[in-house]
Specification:
The complex is a heterodimer of chains A (161) and B (780). Chain A is an alpha+beta fold and 161 residues long. Chain A folds into two domains: 72 residues, Roll (Ubiquitin-like (UB roll)); 69 residues, Orthogonal Bundle (DNA polymerase, domain 1), CATH 1.10.150. In chain A, strand 1 and strand 2 form a beta hairpin. Chain A is globular and about 45 Å long. The termini of chain A are far apart. With 780 residues, chain B is α+β, with helices and mostly antiparallel strands. Chain B folds into three domains: 197 residues, Alpha-Beta Complex (Aldehyde Oxidoreductase, domain 3), CATH 3.90.1170; 317 residues, Aldehyde oxidase/xanthine dehydrogenase, molybdopterin binding domain (Aldehyde Oxidoreductase, domain 4), CATH 3.30.365; 146 residues, Aldehyde oxidase/xanthine dehydrogenase, molybdopterin binding domain (Aldehyde Oxidoreductase, domain 4, 2-Layer Sandwich). In chain B, strand 9 and strand 10 form a beta hairpin. Chain B starts with 14 loop residues before the first helix and ends with a helix. The model of chain B has no long low-confidence stretch (mean pLDDT 97). The chains are: A alpha+beta (161), B alpha+beta (780). Chain A: Its EC number is 1.2.5.3. Chain A: GO terms for molecular function: 2 iron, 2 sulfur cluster binding; carbon-monoxide oxygenase activity; metal ion binding. Chain A: It is an enzyme of class 1 (oxidoreductase). Chain A: Keywords: 2Fe-2S, Iron, Iron-sulfur, Metal-binding, Oxidoreductase.
Chain lengths: 161, 780
């Protein structure tokens, strides 16, 4: 057992976990942040994507201990109170989700994509960048639309800040 | 249409919880004292279980129990059932071997459970499972359907000699033979419909809790049809009587058919929770999903189509071998028979059809309904045949289809189905216009100049949906009725709860079902909530599959609404001292037509519950329920056209354009309908280009993770160009046909027809991987 100290969604936490505990297990089982999902166990599907120090990572493929000292943001931590993150709003407005299982990971990956590419996003880039997130419901059509829509919204909201 | 009524593109009410991480799936639920199950699964495709030594595992920390197949059989938990009886052509019933929830003696596919460890945590259960020693005696195995029917093949079940479950026929063989005898041309085709793994993104899970004082079980499970699960668990698996068993399917992360069935893991979780006296949770991992979720498709077919001298189809002969895997899953028997061969007429006037289907056991994961279930296999076969015929007869493929379309409705096909309505020319026209079909030769020439092989492929699909009426499916062998039920509760403050037996696992019922209420009452959808997925709350339900939730489930809601409205009008008329016949409902008010007299819905509701001033003899309250059974299947149909390019140097396919023109009857929410089509199309494209659940000759699965099984990714597929043509379904009052499966049914033939057009060779199997396409291009 080890104590892992990290910041999750802005709150400092210290959790005693078995050394083999995965980051996703720490989030789901110890902190009850069940918005982060497990879809494949092999780092393929991306349902488990969270942000570590602002970068998208697959939380099923790293040990909780590797996140010691890091700042983790999960799907539960991106809205400002009742105000949705522009990516969340764009997924809703563009019908970018159906069963909702891949959605948290999709949204976390998509925010990272927009951050990395700034305003230089087109459909082909979004499709290539989403390669590590699998959705079985939407056929990606509306997810791609949502990410492109959100890229515009995020630019506007950044400019306003 | 109001802003939230029928036909409006209303954003989904349910989305907020999903986009904020507040969805509640089975694995998200925790119970006090909860234990965790890990199954010990056979690594062999066929073996005798000679012994299980769990002594070391039982000594490990945190291990609560190790339970075996022998114990579950001894405790009289029932064997898994197949709920659709099929009769062979010789009149004999289908031949089935027993399928216990965990194998006491013989395992017949890799992944079949022989024992389960119950422990304090998931990791401890997994650790202990490593310490359980199972002594297997390997037996010869067979995975391929054609190998399995050869004499001398390894035999799976003594009840099914030759591994044959049934040999079933449909249609008029004599009339079909006569048509072929007179044919001017005969077109022949062999096709394999590749085996697929459904892969809903949420792996299956179960959380069972036994209350010893009440002798009552609660099961949270990933189900598309919780009431059917309760019925089967109760009536056939002897878990508990229905009133002592509550089944809850909370948020469910996709189904695609794979979550219709009641699986061994749910049975074991329930049984184990009573044995250990604590809640038991099992959550599958992805490899378990590949090994144990019912697979789809897996047909090998030879077909011949006869044409007269005017290129009119005169007959169709089909022989299909359907691979069922090692056991007959819940509805497996119906998939290659009544859901497949009854659609072999496609959109065409075919006077004589004869089909034979041979169902076969192999040492593979059981096969059952997967999005489309039989209809994709039928549509793929017919549309590959039509394309092959056009090439052989040297006519335009669109024109060949058009000249054989059914244009008069209703139309009785030679294979049971009576198509109620449709306009196949309209959807073909819409698709051809959308893709600029006439301009294709010029585009092909231009692509050729750039070294690319460009092709265009048409697919005109039809499906039978709703999977009802009950009387019809009963006459064909179904063990259940396939109606739907609903209840409308108007609360005393005027808000409305709709309780439905349909189950939403991505379909958006919490929005679309509210839109019907908004349409009829003129209230905002924020005043309406949808309750589903809980056998303690909803009176009954047959669940969601077969594109049935709107056509059948929503109509049940309509029927309950009509009863409620009728009573509410009486109350309103009484309060307004008017005639009931003069009451109209508008904007949430009951108005006396032609006057300014009105009473708002909340006041009517309140009057119903205070019961101070109701018409004489009227019961208090405002709540009605209905069971709805349609009069026919529904028949969604449409045309998909795919244009793509093949790189002759690599065999890689790139999409240029993909258009879909569907006739789903009335659309409740076009945004959601489009989403259903997008998802279905990608499953069809996935089958055509990427997906294949592969076994080696000894029954070892070689595609049991996302590392090995090619799921469609965002960069594998295009955006789509969708449109709708409309003929209203006469079989239900809303005119709805259903949209959930169409994409998966029609897409794969469009893709393969386009690739074979591009490369100029007709024989190409799915998935058309670059390797396979390249080899086909360069084959002698």
């Amino acid at each position: 057992m080890s104590t892992v100290k990290l910041t999750v969604n802005g709150k400092a936490v210290a959790v005693d976990v078995e050394d083999r505990t995965l980051l996703v297990q720490l989030l789901r089982d110890h902190l009850n942040l069940t918005g982060t999902h497990v879809g494949c166990d092999t780092s393929q599907c991306g349902a488990c994507v969270v942000h570590m120090d602002g970068r998208a990572v697959k939380s099923c493929t790293m040990l909780a201990g590797q996140a010691d000292g890091a700042s983790i943001t999960t799907i539960e931590g991106i809205a400002k109170g009742d105000e949705l993150h522009p990516m969340q709003a764009a997924f809703r407005d563009n019908h970018g989700l159906q069963c909702g299982y891949c959605t948290p990971g999709m949204i976390m990956s998509a925010i990272d994509i927009v951050h990395r590419h700034g305003g230089q996003l087109d459909e082909a880039t979004v499709r290539t960048e989403l390669e590590g997130n699998i959705c079985r419901c939407t056929g990606y059509h509306n997810i791609v639309k949502a990410v492109l829509d959100a890229a515009g919204r995020m630019k506007v909201s950044q400019a306003a800040e | 249409m109001g802003v939230e009524g029928i036909g409006a593109r209303v954003v989904r009410k349910e989305d907020k919880r999903f986009i904020t991480g507040k969805g509640r799936y089975v694995d998200d639920i925790k119970m006090v004292g909860m234990t965790h199950a890990h199954f010990i699964r056979s690594p062999h495709a066929h073996a005798k279980v000679k012994g299980i030594d769990s002594s070391a595992a039982l000594k490990m920390p945190g291990v609560v129990a190790v339970l075996t197949g022998r114990e579950i059989v001894d405790d009289k938990v029932g064997n898994l059932i197949c709920g659709w009886a099929i009769t062979s052509k010789d009149g004999s019933p289908m031949k089935m071997g027993a399928w216990p929830a965990m194998a006491p003696e013989t395992v017949r596919f890799v992944g079949q459970a022989v024992a389960v460890v119950i422990a304090e945590s998931k990791n401890l259960a997994r650790d202990a499972a490593e310490a359980v020693v199972v002594n297997y005696e390997e037996l010869p195995a067979v995975a391929d359907v054609q190998a399995a029917i050869k004499s001398g093949a390894p035999q799976l079940h003594p009840e099914a000699p030759g591994n044959q479950v049934y040999d079933w026929v449909i249609g008029d063989e004599g009339a079909t033979d006569a048509a072929f005898a007179k044919a001017a041309n005969v077109v022949k085709l062999d096709v394999t419909n590749n085996r697929l793994a459904p892969n809903a993104m949420e792996p299956r899970a179960a959380l069972a809790d036994y209350d010893a004082a009440e002798e009552h079980f609660t099961l949270y499970t990933t189900s598309q049809n919780p009431h059917v699960a309760r019925l089967v668990l109760s009536a056939f698996y002897n878990i508990a009587p229905e009133h002592k068993l509550r089944v809850i399917a909370p948020d469910v992360g996709g189904g695609f058919g794979s979550k219709i069935f009641i699986y061994p893991e749910e049975m074991v979780a329930l049984w184990a929770s009573k044995k250990v006296g604590r809640p038991v949770k099992w959550t599958g991992d992805r490899t378990e999903a590949f090994l144990t979720d019912a697979h789809g498709r897996d047909h090998v077919t030879h077909a011949e189509m006869a044409f007269d001298a005017n290129n009119k189809i005169t007959g169709l002969k089909v022989k299909t071998y359907a691979n069922f895997g090692a056991y007959m899953s819940l509805f497996s028997s119906s998939v290659p028979t009544y859901l497949y061969a009854t659609l072999l007429s496609g959109q065409y006037n075919i006077p004589a059809i004869h089909a034979e289907v041979i169902g076969v056991y192999t040492n593979t994961t059981p096969v059952d309904a997967y999005r489309g279930a039989g209809r994709p296999e039928a549509s793929y076969l017919i549309e590959r045949l039509m394309e092959t015929a056009a090439r052989q007869l040297k006519v335009d493929p669109a024109q060949l289809r058009r000249s054989n379309f059914i244009t008069q409705f209703p139309h009785q096909t030679p294979v049971i189905m009576a198509y109620d309505t449709g306009d196949f020319n309209a959807s073909l026209d819409a698709a051809m216009k959308a893709i600029d079909y006439a301009g294709f030769p010029a585009r092909k020439a231009q692509a050729k100049a750039q070294g690319k092989l460009r092709g265009i492929g048409v697919s005109c699909y039809i499906e039978a949906c709703g999977i009802a009426p009950s009387k019809a499916v009963g006459s064909l062998g179904a063990g259940v009725g396939l109606w739907e039920s609903a209840e409308v509760r108007v609360n005393p403050v005027g808000t409305i709860e709709i309780l439905t037996g349909s189950h939403s696992h991505g379909q958006g019922h919490e929005t679309t079902f509210c839109q019907l209420v908004a349409e009829r009452l003129g209230v905002p959808i924020s005043q309406v909530s949808i309750v589903h997925g809980d056998t303690d709350k909803v009176q009954f339900g047959m669940g969601t599959y077969g594109s049935r939730s709107a056509a059948v489930g929503l109509t049940a809601i309509l029927k309950a609404m009509e009863k409620m409205e009728s009573k509410a009008k009486k109350i309103a008329a009484h309060a307004l001292e008017a005639s009931e016949a003069d009451i109209v409902i508008e904007n949430g008010e009951f108005k006396v037509t032609g006057t300014d007299k009105a009473i708002a819905l909340p006041m009517v509701a309140l009057a119903a519950y205070t019961a101070h001033n109701l018409p004489d003899g009227m019961e208090p309250g405002l709540k009605e329920s209905a069971f709805y059974d349609p009069t026919n299947f529904t028949f969604p149909a449409g045309t998909y056209i795919c244009e793509l390019e093949v790189d002759p140097g690599t065999g890689k396919t790139s999409f240029v354009n993909f258009v879909a023109a569907d006739d789903f009857g009335r659309l409740i929410n076009p945004m959601i309908v489009e989403g259903q089509v997008h998802g279905g199309l990608v499953q069809g494209i996935g089958q055509a280009l990427l997906e294949h659940a592969i076994y080696d000759a000894n029954g070892q699965p070689v595609t049991a993770s996302f590392m090995d099984y090619a799921m469609p990714r965002a960069d594998d597929v295009p955006s789509f160009n969708l449109s709708h043509t409309t003929t209203l379904c006469p079989g239900n009052p809303l005119g709805i046909k259903g949209c959930g499966e169409a994409g998966a049914i029609g897409a794969s033939a469009a893709v393969i027809n386009a690739i074979t057009d591009a490369i100029g060779k007709n024989n190409l199997e799915m998935p058309a991987t670059p390797d396979r396409v390249w080899r086909t291009i360069h084959a002698a």
